[in-house]
Amino acid sequence: MRRRRLAPLLAVSVTATLAPVLATSTATAAPAATPSASTPTSPAPTAGAAAAAKGALDRYAKQKPQWKRCATDADIPAGFECATIKVPLDYRVPGGKRIDLAISRLKSTAPDKRRGVLFSNPGGPGGPGLYMPLGMRDSLPESARQKYDLIGFDPRGVGRSTPVSCGMEPEEENWLRPYKEETYDKDVAWAREVANKCKEKAGDTLPHITTRNTARDLDLIRAVLGEKKISYVGYSYGTYLGAVYTQLFPGRADRFVLDSAVEPARAWRGMIQWWAEGAEPAFDRWTEWAAERSEKYGLGDTPKEVDRTFWDLVAQADEKPIEFEGQPTTGDDIRSGMRGAVFTPEYATEAFAELKKAAAGEPASAKKLAAFTGSEGTGTAGVAAAGAVESPSDNATASFWAVVCGDNSAAWSRDPETYRRDAIEDKGRYPLFGDFASSIKPCAFWDKSVEPATEVNNKVGSLVVQNEWDSQTPLPSGQALHADLKGSKMVTVLGGEGHGVYPSGNACADGAVNDYLLTGKLPAKDVTCEATADSNAEARKDQKRDMIPGSPLPERAPDRF
To answer: In the annotation, is 236 catalytic?
Structure first.
């Protein structure tokens, strides 16, 4: 039975512009005349060490990118250029090891009206963003295209930016594992093995693939480009990156749009657990929706009957997997697939009705069953896929763990029994997905973070944008980021479905974002929009889309932000 609902819940001086790039305090980093290479626990650097660090950063900021047409066979704008710059692996030691950072730009269409640069990030962690300007070009109104050079980048450790690898086998990348007493020891061994492989393969690099360092990279790119400030559109994980940037470099942030937001205090174990918590009210909503259409779908005349139909089928599949086209679907597969599907009730209802047919041995639609079987893959296509680059096969997962484990090791218990207890308890509290979210992860065996997590608490102006029914970053998560960013305003799309709001064709939400990017003026108060049939249809279509590097929307993978 279901339980509760969640509460709605430049000609600029290099020294002056890059000085805060080494900020390590968890408090807001104020502009400083000289950088600090110390961590909160390390002794203060000598005057000579501080001068050397400043000199090293000055040299990084004076780089002259060698812009060239981005390497792709696709039909892209001639003005879309790529370059590679160097950044410090460890900003505490800027004179030490360097890594590559791949950047791109699409210049303003009206240089005389140009305001500055607009960065973007697609989410992840581990999502490549080098080709994001192409998606942003198609999303922004021409008036905004005139104001900004669009800047893309692959975050450190990702894609063309010195990609990291742990040497994982494909089966080791399957990390959202349901808790079972009989397999838990194997899951613990898997988590330990992944952490060990990462340490052995990239132990010198992974500790520095963090959100704080990626924010520092953003500021270094800003300095290399000769800009005083940056504007930014970040999706999902990209909202956290943007929020960390505003905390470390408040004086550098111009117009920041944070779409489908991460709650900083829950990065990162708590954010994964949001997937389970947020699914429960979505499931309740789905049972009501399906019951109202019982004549068409036959799942039950009341929400309680729909609930029983669902769990009866889960129990049946646990006892004997449902076979469809030679592929078995277990009860765990049903729970996992339904977790993401229920945020769009029609999609969930159609998928589950087809699964019920398959269980009865009747003909069923493979396309509609994809929510549970994962068999419908569209692949990447067109310009974005052509811009993709070969990187280690496990790069997305390796860079994901680097950030999720390394940003805040304090959030992850070192005791495997803690995860066992939490998985058992959360399966009871959040039966759809609680054990998947709370069970053991490689972070339990990760090294300690090289610096504390960032406490986000500032008054920098920004616009937080959120759908009410978001499967990856539920509404309370966006509300929490809005509360942390005291200078922000929030746009909430009531009834909005899907992970990623802008652009959706919703005149209210899209208009609020466009107005802010064009004028720099935040709404006088928080904005509430109503979802439309068309905007939710776009969300449903987007729900099935694979990750596309050039998309202005976040990746669709159900195990990423």
So the answer is: yes
